[in-house]
């Protein structure tokens, strides 16, 4: 299991580290602009000559190239491969000039000290080559249909907020591009780091805001299912942790612990999306039983 330390960085350390911020984007110029506003040299406390911002753009109908050229000339725009978020992040990393990569998403809002805190962490913990930061939300939850990858205590290594030494990232082959959707590619990276005994440290002041977003309906749920199946085919040993029994158990727990009380708190707002997710989890449990448990027993 990855080693996580709850760690606050002193403000008196010398910084000699350079960062390449990688932002994958896809037809969300409005959200991307808000993210870039937070990374402007006049906003980030890390000196501008110690970091660069690379936007790798998978846009098909429109791209952010013109917007970045006119409004954010300090950022670098590159065309993405259009093979999904994992490949898009890897594409951005290919252009990196920094010693470290800092990943965030186009719908995130990094705090002003985000990069400076990561930079100081690399100095304070020179043996550590991976750091994860805090991901928080902008307000209390209002409906059952809202979702955000909150990370207040560490241990997740979500792709929206972590830093990794470029050389280590390259040695791992980056994100596994067999994941075509925005799901499980960061879980896969975390597992591969764990297998080579690379700890990662949680730096709570390296924080980004990930505002609540509306759940993506059945399409997103299906994409997550496909990503889980890809993950299990790559790492069959993880069937101990992800199987039809754990899906059923977690689904029941979520229904009792969250759906029932929150449906009362939010007066039923978003209940349709919540029930759709529970149905999808039952469906996934059946798929896992059929594809792994049932077939295994049949062979035996």
Structure description:
This protein is an alpha/beta fold. It folds into two domains: 6-214, Spore Coat Polysaccharide Biosynthesis Protein SpsA, Chain A; 217-299. 41% of the residues lie in helices and 18% in strands. It is built from nine helices and eleven strands. Strands 1, 2, 3, 4, 5, 6, 7, 9 and 10 form a nine-stranded mixed beta sheet that branches. Strands 8-11 form a two-stranded antiparallel sheet. Helix 2 (65-71) links the parallel strand 3 (51-57) and strand 4. Helix 7 (217-234) runs parallel beside helix 9 (271-299) and helix 8 (244-265) runs antiparallel to helix 9. The protein is globular. 37% of the residues are buried. The mean pLDDT is 93.
Structure summarized in a few sentences:
With 300 residues, this protein is an alpha/beta fold.
The CATH architecture designation of the largest domain is: Alpha-Beta Complex
Instruction: Assign the CATH superfamily of the largest domain.
Output: Spore Coat Polysaccharide Biosynthesis Protein SpsA, Chain A
Put simply, the count of helices is 9
If you average the pLDDT, what whole number results? 93
Counting DSSP E segments of at least 2 residues, the number of strands comes to: 11
């Amino acid at each position: 299991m990855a080693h996580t330390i709850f760690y606050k960085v002193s403000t008196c350390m010398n910084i000699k580290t350079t960062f390449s911020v990688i932002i994958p984007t896809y037809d969300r110029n409005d959200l991307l602009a808000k993210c870039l506003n937070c990374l402007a040299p006049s906003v980030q406390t890390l000196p501008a000559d110690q970091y660069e911002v690379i936007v790798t753009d998978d846009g098909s109908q429109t791209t952010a190239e013109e917007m970045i050229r006119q409004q954010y000339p300090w950022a670098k725009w590159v065309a993405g491969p259009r093979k999904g978020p994992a490949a898009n992040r890897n594409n951005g990393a290919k252009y990196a000039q920094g010693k470290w990569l800092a990943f965030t998403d186009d719908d995130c809002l990094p705090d002003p000290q985000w990069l400076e805190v990561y930079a100081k962490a690399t100095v304070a913990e020179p043996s550590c080559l991976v750091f994860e930061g805090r991901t928080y939300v902008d307000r209390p939850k209002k409906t059952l249909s809202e979702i955000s990858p909150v990370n207040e205590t560490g241990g997740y290594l979500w792709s929206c907020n972590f830093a990794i030494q470029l050389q280590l990232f390259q040695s791992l082959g980056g994100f596994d591009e067999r994941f075509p959707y925005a799901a499980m590619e960061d879980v896969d990276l975390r597992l591969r780091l764990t297998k080579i005994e690379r700890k990662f440290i949680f730096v709570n002041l390296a924080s980004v805001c990930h505002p609540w977003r509306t759940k993506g309906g059945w399409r997103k749920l299906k994409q997550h299912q496909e990503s889980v199946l890809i993950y299990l085919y790559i790492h069959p040993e993880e069937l101990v942790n992800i199987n039809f029994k754990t899906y059923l158990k977690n689904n029941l727990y979520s229904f009792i612990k969250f759906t029932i009380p929150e449906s009362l708190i939010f007066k039923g707002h978003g209940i349709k999306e919540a029930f759709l997710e529970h149905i999808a989890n039952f469906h996934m449990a059946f798929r896992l039983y059929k594809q792994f448990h049932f077939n295994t027993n049949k062979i035996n």
